[in-house]
Specification:
The complex is a heterodimer of chains A (311) and B (261).
Chain A lengths: L7 E10 L2 E11 L4 E5 L6 H8 L7 E6 L7 H7 L3 E4 L11 H10 L7 H7 L15 H13 L5 E5 L7 H16 L3 E6 L2 H7 L2 E6 L2 E6 L1 H6 L4 E6 L6 H7 L5 E6 L2 E6 L3 H14 L4 E6 L3 H9 L6
Parallel strand pairs in A: 3-7, 3-8, 5-6, 6-7
Antiparallel strand pairs in A: 1-2, 1-4, 8-9, 10-12, 10-13, 11-12
Helix pairs in contact in A: 3-5
Chain B lengths: L14 H18 L1 H20 L11 H31 L2 H6 L5 H29 L10 H26 L4 H18 L14 H5 L2 H13 L7 H21 L4
Helix pairs in contact in B: 1-5, 2-3, 2-5, 3-5, 3-6, 3-7, 3-9, 6-9, 6-10, 9-10
């Protein structure tokens, strides 16, 4: 990845709808050529942020620069539009237009479009090319919108929940496309509330909640953070955790999360496991389903927001 | 699988290509829509045949019944496409995010509006051709087309009528919900059909309401077309003035109040 100006630079973005503050001082930088996932629950401000970058919303405060241009300025937005690809969260296509007709039309609005038939085949749209948009399945509609976002060979693509409602096969095709875009130097900004999607695709993840970025980094950085790896096991309920805690190193936490389910959090190394199992031996406890785990993005999110991501 | 390269090579297509593509798409969408065809083709044709053949409403002016009715139904054709059809289609495009998505494409908004106007004009040419053939088969003898001023007057009336009705249709589509636009555009179509001098002469209405009805754009269009095509008059300046005023006000209001989402 070459060092160059960021593809997207957002500082202190604020957007209000009446009394409601949708985005509340959001900062985000997207490096050119990278894939960035904006992760957060519904209502976190993901779509508002993306749509401000696309020129649909005017910022109430803060600055937004996309490819060095201000999407809130009509003249600059006009220069920006041919350079970006946009996939809306839903809709955006004439209900009576046929799938390939619409893709071909979008290609005609661009100077050097991709080969329409090849792109359609890649996304599995060739078999429904003559079907009207309103008769396509939800997954086919999503893939058509995705194809329309990339057909003009943009430098930067905004995908708002590109895999929402897709079956595993279609989801894989979408992931492959995003990986190929990255391989060829296209910058991708996508929103999602699927943890695995963000972990699979993104160079960097911004976790958004309440209209702000509450954590940002590579998937590894976010999951590693300050230790807190886990050991889970099942045993009879009501073990004396006090004596276990005394045996374990300082900074380790032990809890019975539900009756009979135990969670040990700390720096999990072989020494800790040995201590744990010898305590079990002394106490006459058989630790069943003993599992050593790394913190997942799901845990990180839960910890940061106190809420489940899909809630 | 082949190795498509997605390497960026962005850029807008030449304006002419974008305009042609968008006009073609808009026209196909319009002609493919069954309800729209009912409105733009079937209703005017059926009314022309029915009212020419059967003495339901007494017509006025010289010539046969069809000489009164044909100009009125040409006016109705403009109303159905430029106003009713365009309002309904644009209202639903707005609701389905079509206009929003196009707003992020290289196509400028004015070019989208130009393309919409182009597709309305293409449809009107087809309507005028069809209605003229039907009317000629029914014995229509149009006047005024032999002189340059008559032909120019007819063209000018049709264009100004299209501008006025497009402005009103887009104003409605850009401010109301899609369902409200659907209902209101159809209601206005029926009211103007009945009270705009299309098939019922305005002289049949009470004197008190006549000045109001005569100021409607549909009345100006049907009266203007009739004064040339039925009576062989030269430029009907009064009707042209009324249509021009409606066009300016409606288009300005649409430009001011149209909301894209």
């Amino acid at each position: 990845m070459q060092t160059s100006a960021p593809a997207v630079a957002i500082t202190g973005l604020v957007k209000r709808y009446g009394d409601r503050t949708a985005v509340d001082g959001l900062d985000l930088t997207v490096a050119t050529g990278s894939v960035t996932a904006v992760l957060g629950p519904n209502g976190a401000g993901k779509t508002t942020t993306i749509e401000t970058c696309e020129g649909y919303r005017r910022a109430d405060a803060g600055t937004v620069r996309v490819l060095g241009l201000d999407p809130g300025d009509p003249a600059q937005a006009a220069r920006l539009r041919p350079r970006i690809g946009v996939m809306l969260q839903s809709g955006g296509i004439y209900p009576g237009a046929r799938a390939l007709e619409m893709l071909r039309h979008t290609a005609k609005l661009h100077a050097h479009p991709l080969d329409v038939d090849e792109l359609a085949a890649r996304l599995g749209l060739d078999s429904c090319g003559r079907t009207a948009y309103r008769r396509l399945s939800g997954g086919q509609q999503q893939r058509l919108a995705l194809a329309m976002a990339v057909v003009g060979r943009p430098e930067l693509v905004f995908l708002d929940e590109p895999t929402a409602g897709l079956d595993p096969h279609a989801r894989q095709a979408t992931w492959d496309l995003v990986r190929n875009l990255r391989r060829d130097g296209v910058t991708v900004v996508l929103t999602t509330h699927h943890m695995d999607e963000a972990e699979q695709l993104a160079d960097r993840i911004a976790i958004v909640d309440g209209g702000r970025v509450i954590a940002e980094g590579t998937p590894e950085e976010l999951c590693r953070s300050d230790a807190a790896d886990t050991v889970r096991f099942r045993a009879r309920p009501g073990l004396d955790l006090g004596s276990l805690l005394k045996a374990l190193p300082d900074g380790t936490a032990v809890a019975e999360s539900t009756p009979g389910s135990y969670l040990v959090e700390g720096v999990v190394d072989p020494q800790l496991l040995a201590t744990l199992t010898s305590w079990c031996a002394q106490s006459g406890v058989m630790p069943e389903q003993l599992a050593v785990g790394r913190r997942t993005l799901e845990d990180v999110f839960l910890e940061l927001t106190g809420r489940d991501l899909r809630a | 699988m082949s190795t498509t390269s997605y390497a960026p090579q962005p850029g807008a297509a030449p304006l002419g290509r974008m305009l042609r593509a968008q006009t073609g798409l808009e026209t196909r969408m319009l002609l493919r829509n069954g309800e729209q065809l009912l409105l733009t083709v079937v209703i005017p044709s059926v009314l022309l045949v029915l009212f020419s053949a059967v003495d339901i409403v007494a017509t006025t002016g010289p010539g046969a019944r069809v000489d009164f009715l044909a100009p009125g139904l040409l006016a109705l054709a403009v109303l159905s496409t430029a106003f009713t059809g365009q309002a309904i289609a644009t209202g639903f495009e707005r609701r389905y995010g079509v206009l929003k998505r196009l707003g992020a494409s290289p196509l400028p908004r004015w070019a989208l509006m130009t393309a919409k106007t182009g597709s309305v004009l293409v449809t009107e040419v087809l309507q005028v051709a069809l209605l003229s053939v039907i009317a000629l088969l029914l014995g229509w003898h149009p006047h005024g087309l032999g002189t340059p001023s008559g032909a120019v007057a007819v063209l000018l009336l049709l264009l100004l009528g299209t501008a006025a009705f497009s402005g009103l249709g887009l104003l409605m589509a850009g401010t109301l919900r899609a369902e409200a636009t659907l209902a209101a555009a159809n209601l206005v179509f029926i009211l103007l059909l009945l009270a705009g001098g299309v098939i019922v002469p305005l002289s049949r209405f009470p004197g008190a309401v006549r000045p109001v009805l005569e100021a409607l754009p549909i009345s100006a269009l049907s009266d203007g077309l009739r004064s040339v095509l039925q009576q062989g008059a030269a430029m009907p300046w009064g009707d042209i003035g009324i249509l021009a005023a409606w066009a300016v006000v409606a288009l300005a209001a649409a430009a001011r109040f149209f909301r894209w989402e």
